[in-house]
Amino acid sequence: MLSLISRFNGLNLSYHRAITCHRISSSPQSRRITLEDKIGIRPKPKRPMSAFLKFSSNIVRPNLIKDNPSLPITQVTKIAAERWKSVDDDTKKKLAKEYQDEMVGYRAAMVEYLKELSTVDSKLLEKHDPKLRKEKLALKKKRFELGCPKRPLTAYLSYLQTRRSEQGNVPYKDWVSKMAEVWKNLDASEKAKYVQRYEHDKAAFVQQMAAWEKKMRDSGNAHLLNTGTQQNAASGGIGGSKSIKPKSSGSTKDS
């Protein structure tokens, strides 16, 4: 997963949320209801606190609340922010290093978490979690920028592409339905050309993907591999995408 480090101008809101969540979860009678609880799937790994939040929650807040139990959260936040300004660089670097190390473990845990989710649960979580959706889009963009190989079109989709100019004003859904029938009844020798091209492109894709994944691991970008593995690269699916392994030549889709 890509790390989205908190900006200082958003610390007040984040700290307010952290304190609120702590107060709710610390009650023996109640526990914070997470998004995963609401949609009925197991909880995600807990994201580590940033350097400032760790300083606020573990160092500043306990002493303030101990001496002033009724101190408003807004006041706690202001005091923590002021004290953070005077923290020495060594302490800040130490807390920042702890955060970075914890983020490495968090990213790895998130990859495993997403791997183990069913397709339905994964889509459900992404639908209800804008932050996760944003992170996945950022991950996809970064993979593209670093030259992630693109999966080849299936035999059917490649054929469809060659006929695209014939669509005219026909609604796409109707046109695709018509092309599916055309593909189904296409001469076997004609269809074989597209299938063979797809098999050739897929073999090249598997090799390119293996080389790219090795490059990412060697350059310290293993987290960009997300749920993509050599196994689903061989079957055509990368990052949890639908497999592109072709079906029989009589199928309208080869995915």
From TrEMBL:
This is Transcription factor A, mitochondrial. Residues 45-114, 149-213 bind DNA. Residues 45-114, 149-213 form the HMG box domain. Residues 221-255 are annotated as: Disordered. SMART domains: HMG. Residues 241-255 have a biased composition (Low complexity). It comes from Lygus hesperus. Residues 224-234 have a biased composition (Polar residues). It comes from the Eukaryota. GO terms for molecular function: DNA binding. The gene is TFAM_34. GO terms for cellular component: nucleus. SUPFAM superfamilies: HMG-box. It holds the Pfam family HMG_box. Keywords: DNA-binding, Nucleus. The keyword Ligase does not apply.
